């Protein structure tokens, strides 16, 4: 077990250092590095106590893991997320149990955790509070990632794997499964007075999560572009956020969108996003989304890529482009990857690019 603990300590510490030494560190990376450093501290705590005192302590810093992970998820999925003083309220359970630990001189050793003494109630409160923390924060994390994945097609014209955050959803679910299994093993150990398996499983599973989170977290790019100062569009967004568009207003915005796409061909830019369109038209994003969804009847992803597919069809129909590959034409029309191009083209036109090309020649 000692080997697993110190390997986990080294990986968490090293990954955290890699992140904080970046030239430009985002809010998400600050939260991730904090989570990794917390984990390194706990690994070190477990390692030293088991090495010098021959017992393992359940640290109250567990109460920092769930909110830290939730805030990290929010920072990746919420374009307007920022760190605020009120978020310090997430520290209340941790501070409470740290205070209780010193005031009542509690023993959070695993093998004596459920002993019936005068402090059993506070240890049970610790366990129940942790379970509630686990359920609440991880449920909120799943909801945040799920909403983000649904909303991607209203925000971006090109969606890559990095933006889908499938790895983050996998880690959250894996973490919940790990806690459920750990609870079962812990109960088993309590009845048979053998906690060795529980300790080994916890350290090994946490090591796996540490490696996964460190590996994918370091590679994760910022999804939304955050601005230090509010632009004119941002101020308009806040001013009209609660307003309802009239049919006449929707019609005018629709005309603006269609005219802009016809004259400026913004869809040829593979990085086109709702944010860019909002800045160019000086129209709040939520109004653009409302018009696209209710008046035009399409999400942003579908709307933009239909223009791109049509542009590809026109180029494929032009014999002067016969010397160019289908992929080269796709890139020229705003697609950023071969796989996404073929998938979108087939979904919109009902046939592959090759089938379309053969049908016109």
Largest sheet: none
**Multimeric state:** single chain
The CATH class designation of the largest domain is Mainly Alpha
CATH topology of the largest domain: Rhopdopsin 7-helix transmembrane proteins
N/C terminus separation: 68 Å
Helix content: over 70%
Task: Note the run of SSEs as H and E.
Answer: HHHHHHHHHHHHHHHH
- Would you tell me the overall average pLDDT? 82
> Given the C-alpha coordinates, what overall shape results?
elongated
Q: Count up the domains.
A: 2
Unreliable spans are: 228-240
Instruction: Please tell me how large the radius of gyration is.
Output: 26 Å
Strand fraction band?
under 5%
User: Structural class, please?
Assistant: mainly alpha
Overall CATH architecture of the largest domain: Up-down Bundle
Structure description:
- The protein is mainly α and 361 residues long.
- It has 2 domains: 218 residues, Up-down Bundle (Rhopdopsin 7-helix transmembrane proteins); 129 residues, Homeodomain-like (Arc Repressor Mutant, subunit A, Orthogonal Bundle).
- The protein contains 16 helices and no strands.
- The radius of gyration is 26 Å and the shape is elongated.
- About 4% of the residues have low confidence.
Topology:
Blueprint: H1 2-20, H2 27-52, H3 62-77, H4 92-103, H5 120-155, H6 161-164, H7 166-192, H8 196-219, H9 232-239, H10 247-264, H11 274-281, H12 285-296, H13 300-317, H14 326-332, H15 338-349, H16 353-360
């Amino acid at each position: 077990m000692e080997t697993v603990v110190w390997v986990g300590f080294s990986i968490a510490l090293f990954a955290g250092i890699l992140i904080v030494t970046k030239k430009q560190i985002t809010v998400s990376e600050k939260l991730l590095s904090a989570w990794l450093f917390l984990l390194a501290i706990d690994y070190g705590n477990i390692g030293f106590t088991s090495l010098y005192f021959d017992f393992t302590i359940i640290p109250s810093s567990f109460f920092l893991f769930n909110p830290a992970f939730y805030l990290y998820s929010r920072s990746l999925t919420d374009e307007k997320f920022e760190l605020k003083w009120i978020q310090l309220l997430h520290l209340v359970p941790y501070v409470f149990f740290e205070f209780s630990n010193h005031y009542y001189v509690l023993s959070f050793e695993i093998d004596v955790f459920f002993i019936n003494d005068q402090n059993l109630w506070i240890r049970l409160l610790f366990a129940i509070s942790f379970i509630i923390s686990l359920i609440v924060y991880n449920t909120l994390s799943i909801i945040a990632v799920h909403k983000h994945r649904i909303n991607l097609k209203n925000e971006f014209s090109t969606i890559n794997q990095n933006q889908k955050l499938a790895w983050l959803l996998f880690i959250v679910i894996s973490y919940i499964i790990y806690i459920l299994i750990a609870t079962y093993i812990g109960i088993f150990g309590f009845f048979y007075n053998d906690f060795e398996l529980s300790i080994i499983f916890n350290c090994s599973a946490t090591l796996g999560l540490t490696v996964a989170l460190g590996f994918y977290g370091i590679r994760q790019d910022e999804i939304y572009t955050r601005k230090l100062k509010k632009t004119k569009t941002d101020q308009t967004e806040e001013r009209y956020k609660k307003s309802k568009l009239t049919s006449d207003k929707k019609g005018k915005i629709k005309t603006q969108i269609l005219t802009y796409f016809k004259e400026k061909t913004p869809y040829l830019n593979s990085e086109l996003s709702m944010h860019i369109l909002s800045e160019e038209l000086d129209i709040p994003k939520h109004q653009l989304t409302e018009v696209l969804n209710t008046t035009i009847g399409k999400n942003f992803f579908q709307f933009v890529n239909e223009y791109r597919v049509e542009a590809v069809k026109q180029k494929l129909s032009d014999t002067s482009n016969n010397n160019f590959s289908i992929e080269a034409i796709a890139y020229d029309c705003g697609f950023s990857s071969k796989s996404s191009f073929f998938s979108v083209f087939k979904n919109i036109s009902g046939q592959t690019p090759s089938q379309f090309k053969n049908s016109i020649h």
